[in-house]
């Protein structure tokens, strides 16, 4: 069966990762933003960081694809069949999307949420409505057409702590959900309870909880999109040294709170984009500010093999929820590539896989 073949693929793909992850607690510094173009296009864009290569591919999940959720005790979880086709990026060979959208323009992105996630309690009688945290994104994309539909049905399921066997721990995650109308929410599990937050600015990073980040923005009420005028101190006039004084004091480190503040500042100060294509390019430019080179965000301890563990930006993606196009670039290849969902058969019999691999091509201008 297809599911069995996929399961074998997962096991073989994650085997190498498991050795590293068994001795090192992973960290991730993902950043997500939203842009809206003047033609009505809504763009959901993000970075994905991790300390090791997650071997992501772009997947197209067809309508009619059969799913079975995962439970903490090994029983079969919720069963469903995909109502909508979806496209996006996975990780470690898994047949679920970490980031992507469906044919109705609903977007869901998984973001790491360390030290903060507190999943729901589980009882064996809950099995038929249970999903593992990493399955939640695909469940939403394959069943719903809008943020409002997600809000209505998200309380119908149980999302408990489920150990990902190949890694030996339960990944802590939360989700940003957007749709083509611009609606945006953040879904978190805190202290065993589901929390759904409105996300009017369309920004997400990592820990702590989303409402904390929104409150923290009040520490930056001096933020301005325009330069500050000169200040007169008695007989002395203090002139700015140059451009950018409106963002003077903006935090520049890679911690989640600092990235959240910067993501709000850059996404809200971006000049209006005329078209969806323009907004996609603007999103990639904004996310350049969050691109982490290898070595800049590292753990103090080396892994069991003596390797330095450092988060880096594995890939950056942008989803045009109106045109239904998925754009991405990777650490090894900054060329933006795109997959158009409207040009893929939504009723295919199996998942279609498109490699994200590729090396940078440096074009010579010499005659």
What distinguishing features does this structure have?
367 residues; alpha+beta; Penicillin V Acylase, Chain A; eight-stranded antiparallel beta sheet; six-stranded antiparallel beta sheet; disordered N terminus; Penicillin amidase; EC 3.5.1.11; penicillin amidase activity
What structural class is derived from the secondary structure elements? alpha+beta
> What's the tally of helices?
6
Say what the CATH topology is.
Penicillin V Acylase, Chain A
Give the beta-strand count. 18
Which residues form runs of ≥5 with pLDDT under 50?
Answer: 1-25
Question: Gap between N and C termini, in Å?
Answer: 55 Å
**What overall geometry do the principal axes of the alpha carbons give?**
globular
Note down, in words, how this protein is organized.
- Helices cover 19% and strands 28% of the residues.
- With 367 residues, it is an alpha+beta fold.
- It has one domain (2-220, 251-355): 4-Layer Sandwich (Penicillin V Acylase, Chain A).
- Strands 11-10-9-8-7-6-3-18 form an 8-stranded antiparallel β-sheet, covered by helices on one side. Strands 1, 2, 14, 15, 16 and 17 form a 6-stranded antiparallel β-sheet that branches.
- Residues 1-28 form the signal peptide.
- This is Penicillin amidase.
- It comes from Methylocella silvestris (strain DSM 15510 / CIP 108128 / LMG 27833 / NCIMB 13906 / BL2).
């Amino acid at each position: 069966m297809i599911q069995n073949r996929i399961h074998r693929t997962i096991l073989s793909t994650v085997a190498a990762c498991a050795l590293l992850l068994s001795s090192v607690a992973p960290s991730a510094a993902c950043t997500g933003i939203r842009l809206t173009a003047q033609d009505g296009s809504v763009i959901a864009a993000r970075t994905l960081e991790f300390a090791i290569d997650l071997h992501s591919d772009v997947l197209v999940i067809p309508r009619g694809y059969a799913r079975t959720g995962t439970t903490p005790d090994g029983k079969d979880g919720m069963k469903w069949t995909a109502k909508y086709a979806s496209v996006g990026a996975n990780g470690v060979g898994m047949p679920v999307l970490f980031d992507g959208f469906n044919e109705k323009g609903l977007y869901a992105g998984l973001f790491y949420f360390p030290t903060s996630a507190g999943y729901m309690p589980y009882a064996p009688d809950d099995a038929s409505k249970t999903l593992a945290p990493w399955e939640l994104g695909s469940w939403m994309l394959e069943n719903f057409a809008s943020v409002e539909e997600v809000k209505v049905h998200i309380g119908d399921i149980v999302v408990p702590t489920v150990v990902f066997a190949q890694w030996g721990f339960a990944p802590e995650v939360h989700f940003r959900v957007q749709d083509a109308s611009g609606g945006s929410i953040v879904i978190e599990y805190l202290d065993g309870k589901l929390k759904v937050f409105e996300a009017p600015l369309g920004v997400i990073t990592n820990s702590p909880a989303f409402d904390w980040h929104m409150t923290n923005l009040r520490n930056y009420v001096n933020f301005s999109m325009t330069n500050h005028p000169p200040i007169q101190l008695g007989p002395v006039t203090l002139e700015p040294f140059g451009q950018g004084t409106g963002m003077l004091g903006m935090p520049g480190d890679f911690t989640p709170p600092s990235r959240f503040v910067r993501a709000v500042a850059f996404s809200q100060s971006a000049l209006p984009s005329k078209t969806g294509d323009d907004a996609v390019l603007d999103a990639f430019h904004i996310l350049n500010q969050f691109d982490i080179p290898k070595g800049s965000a590292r753990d103090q301890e080396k892994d069991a093999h003596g390797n330095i563990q450092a988060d880096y930006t594995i890939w950056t993606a942008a989803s045009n929820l109106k045109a239904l196009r998925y754009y991405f670039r990777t650490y090894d290849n900054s060329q933006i590539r795109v997959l158009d969902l409207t040009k893929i058969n939504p009723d295919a019999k199996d998942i279609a896989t498109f490699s994200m691999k590729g090396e940078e091509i440096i074009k010579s201008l010499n005659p």
